[in-house]
Fold this sequence. Notes:
It is built from twelve helices and seven strands. By secondary structure, it is of the alpha/beta class. The protein has a single domain, classed as Rossmann fold, CATH 3.40.50.150. It has a seven-stranded mixed sheet with strand order 3-2-1-4-5-7-6, sandwiched between helices. Strand 4, helix 9 and strand 5 form a beta-alpha-beta unit.
Amino acid sequence: MSSRTLQDNLFTGKIGAEYEFLRLMCPNHALLAKRVGETVGAYRPGEALRGFEIGCGTGICTLALLAARDNLTLTAIDAAPAMLDQAREHMADYVSAGRVTFQQADALEALKALPTASVDIVASNYAVHNFLDDYRDRVLAEVHRALKPGGLFVNGDRYAIDDRAAHLADTQETVRRWFKLFREIDRLDLLEDWVVHFYSDESPDHRMYFTPSMQKLEALGFAVSVDFREGVDTLVKAMKA
């Protein structure tokens, strides 16, 4: 199964239709979306920027990006049409103003279609960890190629804890918290789909360990800094030389 087909399957059905539940399940998702927006807002102040967002989902991070920077024009892509429909509805004014274009697309193919050194910003929030390892490596290489010199890749995401025992404990606590939450709101049907998705995230060919991931970015030619890390939830800034 290709990475694109896998991603389409993960975010169809109840997950894609009710993705806003992620705000309850992972409070740091909204926090990191806000921080991604603030990071882009502070980058090269006063300059008009062209940006590209990987895996925009329902537009939680897209909105943070656009609200933080009124001279940013953004192309936001996702493979899941149900979530794109929600994003277009939530941000109809931004679409009408020409500030954002939403596209249903495979991340790697959309990046490969960008000219070399053509965008100032590539942003993502809780999307890159969903990719298979080899596919992710190719996506990040294309991010580097597509960015202008001095361009910024900013990613709020789940980076697995290098200590395997500590990561397992964090994973177990997450699942326990989800069971409590979904019992309280009487949505065990939705819990089932999210747990199945979580098993995919935690499979060996998906798990994105922190230190090796930073090393891969540096090997591509990025200068990397980490602005936030709490458990697995991390904000990474990578500047192209």
